[in-house]
Design goal:
Layout (H helix, E strand, L loop, with lengths): L4 E7 L16 E2 L2 E2 H11 L4 E6 L3 H7 L6 E4 L6 H8 L8 E6 L7 H4 L7 E6 L8 E5 L2 E6 L6 H4 L3 E10 H8 L15 H8 L4 E5 L12 H21 L3 E2 L6 E8 L4 E2 L4 E8 L4 E2 L4 E3 L2 E2 L4 E2 L4 E3 L1 E3 L4 E2 L4 E2 L3 E3 L4 E13 L4 E13 L4 E2 L4 E3 L9 E3 L4 E2 L4 E3 L2 E3 L4 E2 L4 E2 L8 E2 L18
Parallel strand pairs: 1-4, 1-6, 4-5, 7-11, 12-14, 13-15, 14-16, 15-17, 15-18, 16-19, 17-20, 19-22, 20-23, 21-24, 22-25, 23-25, 24-25, 25-26, 26-27, 26-29, 27-30, 28-31, 29-32, 30-33, 31-34, 33-35
Antiparallel strand pairs: 2-3, 6-10, 7-10, 8-9, 9-11
The chain binds uridine-diphosphate-N-acetylglucosamine (UD1) and calcium ion.
The site of calcium ion (CA) has 2 residues, from loops.
Length: about 450
């Protein structure tokens, strides 16, 4: 039986090198705030408690995390990582193991930590360029001390094994060592890393837990490092998708900012961006350069290139695009076709209905087997309020029709091309509203004066 776990997430730093109004840990990688990734990790470890240490731009963080099941510990002045953990100590229970995570290091995964669950350890990594990191002074499997880059001499600087910042120790012992920290160093900070030397001196040294993939310890101190994290996380997500059987034709060009669940034989072409929560059934094909957000596409749905989908549901195989813009509340039944330069919003289309070209459908309830001609517009907005257009099963809407809502087109009705429909139209009949075509006899072209 493991001891109860208490995860402390450090997020009080100012993040000045980001040069941003936004708190550092709220900057996003793969579509989510860095600290959200860290909180996910913390929760996946099934801890007894999580304590978030906040300080700088406190309002932003607390607003962002208002629903989180965590303790909030304020660090009024940022006096160092050791001082930060001390602020969380009031929540420690003596029988707990305390695991410290950093809010700006979002790439660490459960698998990197699980093997060390019952140890007193520091997560370390061997980096080609260790600049800026604390260096690990080894004593076999254990760590004699950690020396910060700024406090290191030449021989220490040559060490490539670095402190990730993640450490774990029994709460009671950690509290004891934290109480002995001093700020007698280059940065005049209370370093959490000094705990390691104190523990070793008392004959209770920390284990060095080396991560397999050194990149996971990387954090973001500036926008360039944030971009690097984005790159690393995107690579990871693409690998996961491909291992699940998703065909990415040009993997390095596909980005996922959120989560995507795919059935078998999903194919995603070059330059696709997926955002929010997406779900693609079997054999869904996403064409090149599509942007798809928060959408659930049923098996067999094809999205042709350059389409934008946001909040779309297809309940059977459909054909969308190229160049379609489908906005929130669009729901398409099996066999629907929404073609090029068609925009939809809050629109339901029944089975086998089609809007193949150049159309705006907003606030529309469209039945089955309806054919919407090119250039059809639902006039759903009078400048103040929105109204619904209802088109019953089997109706045929001629090209260049304006349907002025609220209005209902009857079952199997036909609307003549170029009509402006302001009143409900009967079932089965042809309705049109345009002046009869005439040619004017004796008309001559004007002459230049
Ligand atoms: C720290 C480690 C270093 C390690 C590196 C890994 C110390 C003394 N140094 O250095 O050994 O290699 O991380 O990235 O621990 N924070 C607070 N309050 C503070 C200071 C920091 O909450 O008073 C938080 C920051 O928000 C951040 C984390 O602690 O999430 C790390 O702080 P940072 O100043 O970036 O530490 P480094 O100098 O990078
Ligand atoms: Ca840092």
């Amino acid at each position: 039986m493991s001891r109860p776990l208490h995860v402390v997430i450090l997020a009080a730093g100012a993040g000045t090198r980001m040069h941003s109004q936004k708190l550092k840990v709220l900057h996003e990688v793969a579509g989510r705030a860095m600290i959200d990734h860290v909180l996910d990790l913390a929760q996946a470890l099934e801890p007894a408690q999580i304590t978030v240490v906040f300080g700088h731009q406190a309002e932003q963080l607390i607003q962002h995390g208002q629903d989180w099941p965590v303790n909030w510990a304020e660090q009024k002045e940022q006096l160092g990582t050791g001082h930060a953990v001390q602020q969380a100590a009031t929540f420690f229970q003596d029988d707990e193991d305390v695991l410290v995570l950093y809010g700006d290091a979002p790439l660490v995964q459960v698998a990197d930590l699980l093997p060390w669950r019952d140890q007193q350890f520091v997560l370390t990594a061997v980096l080609a360029d260790a600049t800026g990191y604390g260096r690990i002074i080894r004593e076999g499997e254990h760590i004699a001390a950690i020396v910060e880059h700024k406090d290191a001499n030449e021989s220490v600087l040559a060490i490539q094994e670095v402190n990730s910042g993640i450490i774990q120790a029994p709460a009671k012992a950690l509290k004891h060592w934290l109480g002995q920290l001093s700020n007698d160093n280059q940065q005049h900070e209370y370093y959490l890393t000094d705990v390691i030397g104190l523990a070793a001196a008392e004959g209770q040294p920390f284990q060095a837990a080396v991560v397999v993939d050194a990149e996971v310890v990387k954090g973001a101190n500036d926008m360039a490092q944030l971009a690097e994290l984005e790159d690393l996380l995107q690579q990871r997500i693409r690998q996961q998708l491909m291992h699940q059987g998703v065909r990415l034709l040009r993997p390095e060009s596909v980005d996922v900012r959120g989560t995507v669940y795919c059935g078998a034989d999903v194919m995603i072409d070059k330059g696709v961006l997926l955002e929010g929560d997406c779900e693609f059934g079997e054999d869904v094909h996403i064409g090149a350069h599509c942007v798809i957000k928060d959408s659930r596409l049923a098996a067999g749905t094809v999205v042709a290139p350059h389409s934008m989908l946001d909040g779309v549901v297809t309940t059977g195989p459909c054909h969308i695009g190229p160049y379609a813009r489908l906005r929130p509340g669009t729901e398409l039944s099996a066999g629907c076709k929404v073609g090029n330069f068609v925009e939809t919003k809050k629109t339901h289309m029944g089975r086998n209905s089609k809007a193949s070209h150049l159309t705006y459908l907003g606030d529309a309830e469209i039945g089955a087997a309806v054919n919407i001609g090119a250039g059809t517009i639902t006039c759903n907005y009078d400048g103040v309020n929105k109204f619904t257009t209802t088109i019953k099963d089997g109706a045929f809407i001629g090209s260049d029709t304006q349907l002025v809502a609220p209005v209902t087109v009857g079952k199997n009705a036909t609307i003549g091309a170029g009509s402006t429909i302001t009143k409900d139209t009967p079932d089965d009949q042809l309705t049109l509203s345009r002046s009869r075509q005439k040619s004017v006899e004796g008309w001559t072209k004007p002459e230049q004066k």
